[in-house]
Amino acid sequence: MVSQPTTLTKNDPACTLHVCTSCRPSGFPREPMEERPGFKLFKALERRLKTNQLRHQVSLQPAECLSLCKRSCGIALSSPGAWTYLFGDQDPDLTAQDILDCVSIYLDASNGQMTRDMRPEALRASILGRVPPALSGEDVG
Questions:
Q1: Of 35, 93, 104, 141, whose CB is crowded by the most CB atoms within 10 A?
Q2: pLDDT in tens, 95-140
């Protein structure tokens, strides 16, 4: 069975911010989970979003693992019909606001396309990749 594209409504968030909650530097203890930097980053973003104007535009989602172990903490930013970005090297104590600033820029950018100089300083050198928007059935062949 072929999956059908998701139809968004006006009440759906405009983008999704995935945070790797299992992220931890090499040698950092696995337990307790709440002490892992990735989990702390997720919680810091969750706290900030509660009072941020973006709270209705962003779906903040925990990710079990983004496979960025050598560049923890990792996040992914995506939206239907827009570029997807993958970042590493995020600090739970320092970059939560920079990440939300980047989300705001992403939402304002055409197709989510952000040049290096558009992103906050903390998210310039930490980019690990970007993926072009998926083609819809109408765009293919």
A1: 104
A2: 999 999 999 999 999 899 999 999 999 999 999 999 999 876 555 5
Q: Is the dihedral of CA 129, 130, 136, 140 positive or negative?
A: negative
Locate 3 and state its tokens: 């999956």
Q: CATH number of the domain that 125 lies in?
A: 3.40.30.10
What b/e string do you get for 84-103 counting C-beta neighbours within 10 Å, with b at 16 or more?
Answer: bbbbbbbbbeebbebbbbbb
20 part of a folded domain: yes
Whole-angstrom distance, CA of residue 141 vs CA of residue 133: 16
Q: Where are the alpha helices (DSSP H) in the chain?
A: 37-50, 96-108
pTM for the structure as a whole: 0.84
Q: Do 100 and 53 form a contact (C-beta atoms < 8 A)?
A: no
- CA 132 distance to own-chain centroid: 15
Q: Is residue 79 part of a domain?
A: yes
Work out how many domains the chain is built from and give that number. Answer: 1
- Domain hosting residue 60, numbered range: 15-131
Residue 3 falls within a domain, yes or no?
Answer: no
- As a whole number of angstroms, the distance between CA 56 and CA 101 comes to 15
* Six-digit token string for 80: 């239907």
